[in-house]
Design brief:
The chain is of the alpha/beta class. The protein has two domains: about 160 residues, Glucose-6-phosphate isomerase like protein, domain 1 (Rossmann fold); about 150 residues, Rossmann fold. It has 15 helices and ten strands. The strands form two sheets. Strands 2-1-3-4-5 form a five-stranded parallel sheet, with helices on both faces. Strands 7-6-8-9-10 form a five-stranded parallel sheet, sandwiched between helices. Helix 4 packs antiparallel against helix 11. The relative contact order is 0.15. This is SIS domain-containing protein. It comes from Nocardiopsis coralli. Keywords: Repeat. Pfam families: SIS.
Length: about 350
Amino acid sequence: MTSTSSVMRSEISQQPDALRRTFAELLPLRPELEALARETKQVLFIARGSSDNAAVYGGYLMQAHTGRLATLGSPSIATTYGARLDLSGVLAVAISQSGRTEEIVETMRWAADCGARTVGITNGAGSPLATESDAALVTQAGDEVAVPATKTYTTQLAALAVLALGLGADLDPADLDRVPDAIEESLAAPTDGLDEIVERMVAVQGAVVSGRGMAFSTALEASLKLKEACYLHAMGLSYADLLHGPMAVVDPRTPALLMAAPSGPTLGGTVALAERVRQAGAPVFGFGGGAELARASDVNVPVPDLPEWVSPLQLIVPAQLLTERLARRLGLDPDVPRGLNKVTQTS
């Protein structure tokens, strides 16, 4: 493996401090979010790319712990079809790293015009998403130079965790304080498992990345990172979707990367999936999942034991490290993947 450092690796290491700053900034806004909670019943997420993966986490979090129906919006309904919907009683949560992706800003404006209350989650203070929403959750990631989102993604998850508390989730806010320390522990841990996975993935052209429940968001984001920076045909699939047909794609040349919190109601299903994948002859690389997933995996990268609802904030970190290491091992620059810009505009 080349020893050349990257901006992406540096930004991965900045995540603990970015999360501490973000929690300190956003937790005092809970009364503002509680006021919006009293006016709304459902949550509509508006996002693209990594922000859309963060929204998947938000959807599971809101429905599992706030009792609110949460859905992923389709921005083209607003921007292309120009449809008119009754969004009274809806809290529209628009997520964009820059806060100025035109499609996301336009869709948030459309949602407000249709009767929704709005929350903007962005790292862009002063951006349209921050200034035009009813409540702005401005993350404190600092400038992110590498094209693949790392610290802006995890701070978006942090904002969604704070939003869940504001919307009435019966969860312990003290769990949030444990996250930065857990990530620092992971960053300082031995890299033997990651190094082995990198070497075993050098020759593959495709991989399946899967998770269940709140870890599904991690699988989607890990898959996106491998596609962006390593040009790998990585498929992000839910546990259920993988079982319904695509299981046929896993074979000795197509590893499965399985993501799971160290505990929680979805862990048993993920372990069972690992055992089934190994029966199909495919390598299983486990991320998290505690001792149970480690036993069912060919190689496992452990993470500290955090409650399931905050585990996605740390679970993505070893997948980010894998992406950065594999890209360099392949002779690629993880900071500037081909064909990508930091802000993507869609019409």
